[in-house]
Amino acid sequence: MTTRSHSLPFAQPNFRLFLQALIWVGTAFGIGLLATTWPAVPRDFPEAWNLGLRDPLDAFQRWVVANRASHPVFAFGFTPLSSWIDHALRFFEQALLRPGWPALLLLFALLGYLAAGVRLSLFCAGSLLLAGLFGLWEPTMQTLALMLATLLLAILIGVPLGMAAAASDRLDRLMRPVLDAMQTIPAFVYLVPVMLLFGIARVPAVIATLIYALPPMIRLTNLGIRQSNQAAVEAAQSFGATRWQILRGVQLPLALPSILMGVNQTIMMALGMVVIAAMIGAGGLGREVLIALQRLNVGRALEAGLIIVCVAMLLDRLSAALTRIDFAAPAGTQRQDLLSGWVAGAVAARLSTERAYYFQAYGRLINATLLFLAFLLLDALIFQFGNFPETWRLGLREPANAVVIWARDNLYFVTGPLSDGIVIYLLNPSRDLLLNHLPWPAIILAVAALAYTSGGLRLALGSATGMALIGLLGMWTPAMETLSQVILMVLLTVAIAVPLGLLAAQSPRFSAVLRPILDLLQTIPAFVYLVPVIMLFNIGRVPGLIAAVLYALPPGIRLIQLGIETVPSVTVEAAESFGSSRWQTLIKVQIPQALPSIMLAINQIIVMVLAMVIIAGLVGGAGLGIEAVRGLARSETGRGIEAGLAIMILAIILDRITQAWAKSKP
Amino acid sequence: MNRITPNMMPPKIVCRDVWKIFGRAPRRIFKALASESMQHESMEGHIIAVRGVSFEVRTGETFVVMGLSGSGKSTLIRCISRITEPTHGEILVDGQDVLRMRPLELRELRRKRVSMVFQHFGLFPHRRVIDNVAYGLEVRGVPRPKRRERATEVLALVGLEGWEYHFPRQLSGGMQQRVGLARALAVDPDILLFDEPFSALDPLIRHDMQGELQRLQATLQKTSIFITHDFTEALKLGDKIAVMRHGQIVQVGTPQELVINPINDYVGAFVRDAPRGRVLTAQAVMVSCPLTPTSTDRPTISAQTYLDDLLPLMAAYGDPVAVTDDDGLTIGHVDRAGVLKALIRE
């Protein structure tokens, strides 16, 4: 499904256009006919056609619960796997919590210093200090341990899989849609099955995080190996190197920067799952946010959110520094700073040039390690710092809570009508359209028509089948509720993102102002700003809508801005040389050329809105989200999986349609 | 056959009717072509890179394959050690068919007998110069001290002492290709394959490297196949030159044979700008005579003297100049008219 797969025998564009118009008119007529002639009640998908997956799934769950201890699949499969992962997790947790807190500060300060110098070093240590001052030391370490365990698994699984995918085109082709799906499907979909198979505790949280964070590891390993210098590989071949010798001695070292980029991406993706993973027992900072959400404690959510942002930035910078390490740097070009010289320098001075190389090249790392070990020893023998002192506290809670409560009480004249307006004029009509005005075949027809015009017959058939399947799962009503919200959220987001993106591309100053706001919105977990939004707008569909728009805005704006900015300057100059005004250049040259990128932005917005619409279900957002959350909370496995499948189908249909649409543009 | 002594030994490398077709079903296309049941237009997206090429290379000879880009010459050289798998044909190295070798034999061939030098050097950017050079020995399983010793030796041979512990990208292009050459020489192969080794270099450096290669070749006497798109380079380095076009060899011959007698306009176009004085020898313009003793008052030349070297002599002493054989007997004469006629482009 790359481009439109139907090729018309008529090459004339006019005729094609005419045919497309014909299809649209026909579809519109069909939908109208269905809408008017269909018996008024029921417009809903017939309940009698329900596949009835729920009961067998629930039965399966009961069977799993009853047999978890005894059945070989669990006794020899999932249970030992769980316990290994749990061991790894515990190991990392212990490693981070056992040494006294100053040792950790030193460790991160050293890492930051090695990676990028004094500023990052101060930032790393400062973040940890802030976590301690907020009273979040332990949750922070738990989250870090979760990240490390996930990363370890991602490397253990992702690198070999990436290598295999690089070696075999067939495997690559097979794996690609699976990886796509892992990234598009909202995490809620697999929370229930993962929980069922791995039990409750932190292991399913690791697995769920892993499912989401693994794809970049595989993709970038694959890419790195495939892109490794073909000449070098050929040379190795010509010397009679075996396949394994080529892989190990040439391709993997050359792919290392790309693999390390995968490490960076995986960490960032995993951090995006912190709060969601906390729903199935990940603990850590995510749990703090969830508790704050339940108690509507803005300050607490803000503190935990800030630390999550800090941890994200810290891990991002540290792992990004890994990708910049120049393993082939000549000796003597190493940076000279506080860590150079010392022990490693002294050792290097006493060795022959050939051996001194390693002490010169890795001198700073060696010195840092020695320094850290020395401190650990001192700590264990003399200081014994232990936990972060309880008496050192700094709170953002009270002021933050005070501000939001003030706003809630005094800004009602704005928020009240706004909220009501959104419900009465936007949310209700769109829901009514899908649920009460249009009968289900008309909706399926409309989706199929949309799919046909963007991606051709196969996509149309696939989409129609998917929609019907949602009905067969018995999820038609909540799915239409969700779809109506998604459409609304996407329209709102696009309406805001397009002008902002265009403006940011035109004005560097505006872009500079916008950038830190977008950064913050993108790194802070959506749950965190959900809290004040709920406080201002009350539980219901409105806070979900606002949160989703806020969540999907940054990538949307960025992609649109990027699209405009990457239009080759030659064409812009050419337009200007003909005396076209700035506005004309924008409309006639830049936007048409940036169209694929704008389409991509819309695609991205849809994927993000869908991820958020589920989360909105947590705060009374109705639709599939609430079904999935109920399935999770009450352990109604059947219901959760049905809702999850429906979400997945909806996500894939929307993703494919917009992707095909983006690709069909020249 | 002027620079090598004709030898009666069997040829070192023989290619017979080698084909390489790229595409989804190369074998089917080849069969269809062989039975002539297919038009050349309906290739179904297949590309014939090498089309029934045959040639022989003798021990110690430098065989240059010359052609424009897309003529299939790089594919041809890759077929010889099966870096690219030929679709059809026979490639004999020391009488042994490479195409029938099992993977292990092929690996042995690549490890010990055939080395290759690449157009874009193909160096390993993550290994130091010395480990690049030692790579061939490393995959062969030679222990580290030994292979490093050998690498140091070869690096000295190509004039790179003192650069052992640098990384490739710290070296200039010419030096990088010296590393590539050293890497190929380190395994002490019988056969060297050069795939446009100097085409990525600046003209001056290229000239140096050609000289360097001539110098090495004079002492090492390796059997070489050398790919180039530069006719001057081909003339300079080749004992024999094959001109390739559309995957086929158009003409094979010594530089002199090509210059004197290009088979068609295509070869003629290359030959037109050739420095004829540096390619043609006295033999080509000599008027033979029965063996006679040589008079001693005038200078004589050998049949292998280039016309460029002959001109100053003629300018000083006038014609005709006697051409003598190894025993000092006159075998013919060269006169001004003959030389000038040969030097003028037709």
TrEMBL record, chain A:
The keyword Membrane applies. GO terms for molecular function: amine transmembrane transporter activity; carnitine transmembrane transporter activity. It is found in: Cell membrane; Membrane. This is ABC transporter permease subunit. Its main location: membrane. Keywords: Cell membrane, Membrane, Transmembrane, Transmembrane helix, Transport. CDD domains: TM_PBP2. SUPFAM superfamilies: MetI-like (SSF161098). Signal peptide: none annotated. The chain crosses the membrane at residues 21-41, 104-137, 144-167, 187-214, 267-286, 298-315, 365-386, 433-452, 483-505, 526-553, 605-629, 641-662. One of its GO terms (biological process) is glycine betaine transport. Residues 140-319, 479-658 form the ABC transmembrane type-1 domain. Belongs to the binding-protein-dependent transport system permease family. GO terms for cellular component: ATP-binding cassette (ABC) transporter complex. It is a multi-pass membrane protein.
